[in-house]
Design a protein that fits this description.
The chain is α/β, with parallel strands linked by helices. The protein has 6 helices and 5 strands.
């Protein structure tokens, strides 16, 4: 809850595009907030951030990093970040490498649950995405986390903090 990263991706369905905004805690790589909508307006991002805020209750000063997309630059999102005591950080113009962890997450999500699939409805695509994100947070092992899932990594960290305090 010190540095979060966010981005938007899109998934094709027979009904049209489904847009996904995600917020990732870079400490554990856990997806802590998300929003699935049929549009990519600023409210898509704000909804994902709101979920992350309510789930995690971060202390003031958290840094939220994103690209320079119009949704992230909007008054709606920038005002919400300020109201919530979060600091905005943005990638350099045209440099996707500045948001590499989130871009990597998109690649894994699409390879595992989107590529090669034909979704008749947004609901069907959304369910595939939600199922994979649950797998990712709870069971997908990360070499950078000592071959633990994001949830396991955080649980071990919290246990270690409790032991230190005892």
């Amino acid at each position: 809850n010190q540095l979060w990263s966010g981005d938007i991706t899109y998934i094709q369905t027979d009904e049209g595009w489904l847009y996904l905004a995600a917020v990732i805690d870079l400490f554990s790589r856990q997806v802590v907030g998300w929003s699935l909508q049929s549009h990519m307006q600023a409210s898509l991002v704000k909804d994902a951030l709101t979920m992350a805020l309510w789930r995690r209750r971060p202390p003031p000063g958290l840094i939220f990093h994103s690209d320079r997309g119009s949704q992230y630059c909007s008054h709606e999102v920038q005002g919400a970040l300020k109201d919530w005591g979060m600091r905005s950080s943005m990638s350099r113009k045209g440099n996707c490498w500045d948001n590499a962890p989130t871009e990597s997450f998109w690649g894994r999500l699409k390879t595992a649950s989107v590529h090669g699939c034909k979704f008749a409805t947004r609901e069907q695509a959304g369910q595939a995405v939600m199922d994979w994100m649950a797998f990712y947070n709870h069971r997908r092992l990360h070499s950078s986390l000592g071959y633990l899932s994001p949830m396991q990594y955080e649980q071990r960290w919290y246990e270690a903090q409790r032991k230190k305090a005892a």
